[in-house]
């Protein structure tokens, strides 16, 4: 029963916010109302509750650093978390460009790719000296800047340096949206490490990136073969 409510309540909390197209004060009020009348599990959505108890962060919208706890390494406020997550929605709707270019029907999204890389990191056997949790986290953020810049591929005629510059700028914007703070900093560090290939975890996650793509390519190939077998 307890685990059931854990699944249901977060979904309801989010549907309230996501059903409203822009984050007006009425969105925030309804979210606040919901939070005031619902007992959320203590961990999963604590950032929403924390923010709802601070009326200034809700009424000010983007003012994510109320002065009373500016020094604490706090999670993002509800409004900045929702803005960030709304932007991340594009990761779910942006198709991976490599498949689009190869005319794959209904190809996977950037989020699809990152999600399965996250699973790969999660099920990988222990490697001495490798922080597995960090690999999972890195896998699910390594393409996050593409929420803004899209999936830029060599065929777009954009040089690697320019791609990297645009992505850094996008990442910076997303971290600011999240209100800076320790969570944003972690995302930025994970992304930078991956981008610059500067840690053992980054090198492994880059391998996962390739393996996931190869697996997906095989699946598309098999899918196409299966369709042909069915129709012939
Ligand atoms: C990352 O660094 C390792 C060496 O430390 C190298 O073998 C690998 O090719 C690099 N990967 C990329 C994508 O630059």
SSE blueprint and pairings:
Blueprint: H1 2-18, H2 25-36, H3 46-53, H4 55-59, H5 78-93, H6 97-101, H7 110-123, H8 132-141, H9 146-149, H10 160-177, H11 181-196, H12 200-231
Helix pairs in contact: 2-3, 7-8, 7-12, 8-11, 8-12, 10-11, 11-12
The structure holds 2-acetamido-2-deoxy-beta-D-glucopyranose.
Keywords: Hydrolase, Metal-binding, Signal
Signal peptide: 1-26
Subunit structure: Homodimer.
Structural features, described:
The protein is 68% helix and 0% strand. With 232 residues, the protein is mainly alpha-helical. The protein folds into 2 domains: 1-77, no CATH class; 94-232, Hypothetical protein af1432 (Orthogonal Bundle), CATH 1.10.3210.10. It starts with a helix and ends with a helix. The site of 2-acetamido-2-deoxy-beta-D-glucopyranose has 3 residues, from helix 12. 2-acetamido-2-deoxy-beta-D-glucopyranose is lined by residues 197, 203, 206. InterPro entries: HD/PDEase_dom, HD_domain, YfbR/HDDC2. Its EC number is 3.1.3.89. Pfam families: HD_3.
CATH topology category name of the largest domain: Hypothetical protein af1432
CATH homologous superfamily annotation of the largest domain: Hypothetical protein af1432
Low-confidence regions: 1-32, 47-70
Question: In percent, how helical is the residue content?
Answer: 55-70%
Function: Catalyzes the dephosphorylation of the nucleoside 5'-monophosphates deoxyadenosine monophosphate (dAMP), deoxycytidine monophosphate (dCMP), deoxyguanosine monophosphate (dGMP) and deoxythymidine monophosphate (dTMP).
Protein name: 5'-deoxynucleotidase
Cofactor: Co(2+); Mn(2+)
GO molecular function: 5'-deoxynucleotidase activity; metal ion binding
């Amino acid at each position: 029963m307890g685990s059931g409510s854990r699944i249901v309540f977060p979904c309801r909390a989010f549907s309230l916010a996501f059903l409203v197209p822009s984050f007006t004060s009425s969105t925030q009020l309804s979210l606040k109302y919901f939070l005031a009348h619902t007992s959320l599990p203590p961990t999963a959505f604590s950032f929403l509750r924390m923010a709802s108890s601070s009326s200034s962060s809700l009424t000010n919208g983007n003012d994510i650093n109320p002065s009373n706890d500016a020094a604490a390494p706090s999670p993002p406020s509800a409004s900045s978390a929702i803005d960030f997550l709304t932007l991340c929605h594009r990761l779910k709707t942006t198709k991976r460009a490599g498949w689009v270019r190869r005319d794959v029907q209904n190809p996977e999204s950037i989020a699809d790719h990152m999600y399965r890389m996250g699973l790969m990191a999660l099920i990988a056997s222990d490697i001495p000296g490798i922080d597995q949790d960090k690999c999972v986290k890195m896998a699910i953020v390594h393409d996050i800047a593409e929420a803004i810049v899209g999936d830029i591929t060599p065929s777009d005629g954009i040089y690697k340096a320019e791609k990297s510059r645009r992505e850094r700028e996008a990442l910076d914007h997303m971290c600011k949206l999240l209100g800076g703070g320790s969570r944003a900093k972690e995302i930025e560090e994970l992304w930078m490490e991956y981008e610059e290939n500067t840690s053992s975890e980054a090198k492994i996650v880059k391998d996962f990136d390739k393996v996931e793509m190869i697996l997906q390519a095989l699946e598309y190939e098999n899918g196409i073969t299966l369709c042909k077998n069915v129709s012939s």
